[in-house]
User: What shape does this take?
Amino acid sequence: MVTLDYLLTVLYLGKGEERMSKLRRTSYVGLATVAAALTLVAVLGGLDLLGTAFADPPEDQTYTGAKRCASCHFTQYMSWKKTKHAKTFDLLPAEYQEDAKCLKCHTTGYGTPSGYKDQASTASLAGTTCESCHGPGSKHDEIAQQFKSKKTLTPEEEKLVRGSIWLMLPKNVCVECHTVQAHKKSETPPELRKK
Ligand code: HEC
Ligand code: HEC
Ligand code: HEC
Ligand code: HEC
Assistant: This one.
């Protein structure tokens, strides 16, 4: 194994044992400082004290379906309705509509406890709905409900509501489905591909 010591030795071969041990000391101190700084950033990030970290939403959220989201986000709902994401389930030919291989990308939350199962029980989660990108939103829904009758929220209330939904871009949620651009082969059967 290539250790730090080994690298330093190679770099400073013939520079004398005294210099070598001084260098070794400074390098270890340097490394320890970097490690400590990284830990601090991670801890503060987890507590969201830096204001830059994007935490996951509370774990116990379940999928609600786009209609629930629409009740408060009508504008976003209407614009999403016009996108191809709203109709990704309809792309599947009948013989593939119960195929687990396809459902993970052509429905919402497939394979998770409250995600899409089948057309009979969870039709509202067919297609790439809001929660494919924003994550399950039951807690966000619940928290926001209490302010529904208010015209304007206080900064604290707004922070509470905003903080309860997933800010997914830092996780690059898109590549979970759009794998082609991520240097992988398309999982859509070749005979069904447009290009
Ligand atoms: C009871 C009302 C209500 C429901 C239901 C609701 N939201 Fe929200 N949502 C809000 C409010 C209030 C905010 C704060 C910002 C604002 O006023 O638009 C918000 C903010 C957001 C944000 C922005 C977060 C940020 O800071 O960038 C997203 C994304 C979001 N909601 C997605 C959803 C999704 C997805 C659903 C369905 C699972 C949903 N919401 C359901 C009320 C609601
Ligand atoms: C294909 C992914 C995707 C889908 C599907 C999607 N969104 Fe978003 N949404 C985004 C992105 C990306 C942003 C901007 C960055 C962010 O907030 O993290 C965003 C931002 C938002 C915001 C913040 C305010 C705004 O308008 O910019 C709200 C509210 C929101 N979405 C609600 C919804 C609702 C409701 C639906 C379903 C009807 C939906 N989104 C479907 C990706 C998506
Ligand atoms: C759950 C899977 C899934 C996720 C997550 C997802 N997409 Fe898609 N997306 C699809 C599918 C399936 C299509 C094909 C729709 C079609 O061809 O009719 C598509 C189509 C598109 C298109 C083409 C739309 C058009 O009008 O031609 C764009 C652009 C796109 N996605 C961007 C994004 C971005 C950006 C994100 C992340 C913010 C994202 N997608 C997240 C599954 C997904
Ligand atoms: C890894 C995610 C993923 C899986 C798995 C997947 N698809 Fe797709 N599918 C997509 C995306 C993303 C698109 C949009 C076009 C693109 O980017 O390839 C798409 C597009 C399509 C289209 C429209 C034609 C086209 O080229 O746009 C059809 C039809 C389709 N998929 C069927 C299927 C079937 C059937 C299966 C299962 C055998 C399947 N897909 C599995 C992500 C997926």
Observations:
- The mean pLDDT is 76.
- The chain has nine helices and no strands.
